[in-house]
Amino acid sequence: MSAPADASQRKGPVIAVVGPSGVGKDSLMQGLAVADPRLRAMRRVITRAPEAGGEDYQPVTEAEFEALATAGVFALHWRAHGLRYGIPRDIEALRIGASGVLVNLSRAVLLQAQEVFDDFRVISVTATPEVLAARLAARGREDAAEVQRRLSRASLALPEGLAQLFEVDNSGALGKAVAAAQAIIQAERA
After folding, report:
1. Where exactly are the structural domains of the chain?
2. How many Cβ atoms from other residues are within 10 Å of residue 151's Cβ?
3. pTM of this structure
4. Which superfamily does 8-189 belong to?
5. Rg of the Cα trace of the chain?
6. What is the pLDDT of residues 106-156, one digit of tens each?
7. CB contact at 8 A, 86 and 45
């Protein structure tokens, strides 16, 4: 019988944080990382202009993204909202010794991600339609038509077949949502 692996060499789970635009995924992830320094956040590669703001991401052009995808840099990549998103294979190095790696994923790639990553969990973040509308308007990244399009997609269901799926309501104070997500993550570690 072999000895248990050193805790610093164990891999933490990949924790997908998903939900509609404006639900506060990035804020929740930041709050979780502050609450638990052993939680890491994966920086996405996105074909979004650097001045667009929002989350901390690596902006690239369409040609740069294609070159990275062709070179096999991504563990996972997809298209959404007219952009391309990629999760670099570096995520595996982040998992070593971490209590988990948080990653903002599209609902459309969750089943694929579940196949790619062992120990994969999903936290579905929700908020009321009124809260979503106010947050989308406040961030100012989308015009009124795009805000309406995103709101119409907010109620889309998650794919069936996700092995570890949890829900957190982020309609109110961020601290409450962070505490709820923390409780989920800690319970799953036990």
Report:
1. 8-189
2. 16
3. 0.86
4. P-loop containing nucleotide triphosphate hydrolases (3.40.50.300)
5. 17
6. 989 999 999 999 999 999 999 998 898 888 888 777 777 877 888 877 777
7. yes
